[in-house]
Write a sequence for this structure.
């Protein structure tokens, strides 16, 4: 039977002990823990030894718990002062309690029935009760004392005194799982030890020195089992969501899209709203739906010719439209704001000039006031894009969106619903099915209105979309909480797969 040097040494020592704790076996062999564990697993696979593991949940004191075990819980220190003075103010308690301990102590003393609390001359006064004078140890005190004596106590033993969640709430104890390992030699292992095992120096590399000296005849060459369990290593890699975005970007470029880039996260309302034919009195422009920059408050408008065309579209209309019929304010258009959607870059690119036919996209960070939950963020990424061409129609748009959701993002089911946006007509909302969250809306799209495109100098149909790429990433990365995309959870960052 082929045995490595470490397996031979471990088996010899195990033959002397018959049955031993894993730590004892490590001490006897003088090898590293990892080496002994690898040897034990190898011997077990060969039927020469058995590894027995028993896991148990235990409780031990935190640093705060050790401190309280030494000086006493805050309520007992406060009660000691109360027993001496009978009536105290918060200033009296500051002599024995820190500010962090002082905050909850009043409610705790009142809850235990140890003190009556009232106000006198504008000050909070605590007066001891009969129950406070005769107070005895509670279950939590006995649990703290037991933990201080034994250091580590089985969870069940602590639960018989007080719920562990109460100790964890007060940050005096923590729960962990400990595993006891014992190794036992098998009859086959004992028989092999009795026959005798020859220990030779083991090497993993044939060096010129071994060859020249002839010592290669005296050593054994280590065999490597590529299937043997080893310590897991986490190499450096891109953050999973960052890698996802980079692959989306590369895929779109491979499909012939041109990337639109911009350095600033701040836009004027002109590009964020006005150039998109969104009226200045539209409710989505208010502070409840967008952020506003406090300082500096205003920026600059582009060239006068473009501004005049946008103004005309708003006031009187273009391409047969009547416009919105109000007096357009350049001062309102100059107000600065964190970008609310990536469509602002579409407007910039169209005004700058595009190839016809042409395909463009951008991945940008955008900002919107919202309530943080599993599917909403206040700062998130959005992928916007548009295709401009003479013969484009609404069916082309739906086809692009479905292909994007299914092939690129990995959504299994997609559905489209009618929607409204000031700058597209017709408009559509796209939702995809998530196994945990159900149907999730992640994008809006449509054909840019002629009042918008003609004001920006474009005389051809433009189909466009804006997609919450963060929500699509949830599908691909297999998570059900959007906040995890920006998580500092090392376990998730290490184990999350890089996907496409």
């Amino acid at each position: 039977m082929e045995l490595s040097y470490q397996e031979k040494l471990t088996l010899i020592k195990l033959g002397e002990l018959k049955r031993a704790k894993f730590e004892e076996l490590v001490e006897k062999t003088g090898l590293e823990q990892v080496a002994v564990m690898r040897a034990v697993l190898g011997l077990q696979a060969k039927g020469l030894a058995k590894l027995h593991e028993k896991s148990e949940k235990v409780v031990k004191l935190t640093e705060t718990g050790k401190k309280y075990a030494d000086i006493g819980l805050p309520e007992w220190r406060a009660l000691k002062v109360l027993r001496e003075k009978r009536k105290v103010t918060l200033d009296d308690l500051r002599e024995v309690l820190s500010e962090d301990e002082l905050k909850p102590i009043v409610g705790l003393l009142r809850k235990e029935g140890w003190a009556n609390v009232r106000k006198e001359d504008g000050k909070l006064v605590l007066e001891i009760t009969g129950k406070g004078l005769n107070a005895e140890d509670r279950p939590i005190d006995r649990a703290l004392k037991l933990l201080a004596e034994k250091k580590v106590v089985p969870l069940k033993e602590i639960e018989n005194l007080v719920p562990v969640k109460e100790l964890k709430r007060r940050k005096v104890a923590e729960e962990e799982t400990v595993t006891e390992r014992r190794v036992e030699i098998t009859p086959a292992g004992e028989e092999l030890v009795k026959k005798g095992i020859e220990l030779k120096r083991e090497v993993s590399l044939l060096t010129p020195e071994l060859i020249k000296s002839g010592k290669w005849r005296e050593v054994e060459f280590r065999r490597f089992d590529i299937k043997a369990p080893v310590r897991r290593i986490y190499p450096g890699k891109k953050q999973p969501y960052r890698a996802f975005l980079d692959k989306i970007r590369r895929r779109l470029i491979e499909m012939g899209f041109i990337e639109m880039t911009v350095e600033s996260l701040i836009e004027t309302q002109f590009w964020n709203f006005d150039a998109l034919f969104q009226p200045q009195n539209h409710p989505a422009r208010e502070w409840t739906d967008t952020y506003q920059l406090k300082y500096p408050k205003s920026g600059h408008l582009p060239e006068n010719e473009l501004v005049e065309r946008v103004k005309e579209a708003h006031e009187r209309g273009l391409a047969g439209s009547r416009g919105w019929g109000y007096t357009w304010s350049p001062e309102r258009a100059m107000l600065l704001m964190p970008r609310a959607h990536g469509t602002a870059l579409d407007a910039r690119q169209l005004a700058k000039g595009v190839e016809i036919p042409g395909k463009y996209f951008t991945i940008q960070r955008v900002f919107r006031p919202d309530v943080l939950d599993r599917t909403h963020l206040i700062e998130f990424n959005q992928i916007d894009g548009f295709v401009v061409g003479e013969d484009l129609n609404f069916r082309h748009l739906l086809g692009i969106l479905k292909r994007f959701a299914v092939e690129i993002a990995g959504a299994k089911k997609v559905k489209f619903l009618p929607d409204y946006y000031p700058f597209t007509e017709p408009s559509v909302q796209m939702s995809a099915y998530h196994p945990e969250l159900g149907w999730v809306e992640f994008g809006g799209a449509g054909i840019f209105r002629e009042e918008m495109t003609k004001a920006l100098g474009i005389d051809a149909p433009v189909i466009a979309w804006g997609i919450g790429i963060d929500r699509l990433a949830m599908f691909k990365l297999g998570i059900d909480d959007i906040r995890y995309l920006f998580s500092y959870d090392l376990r998730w960052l290490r184990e999350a797969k890089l996907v496409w």
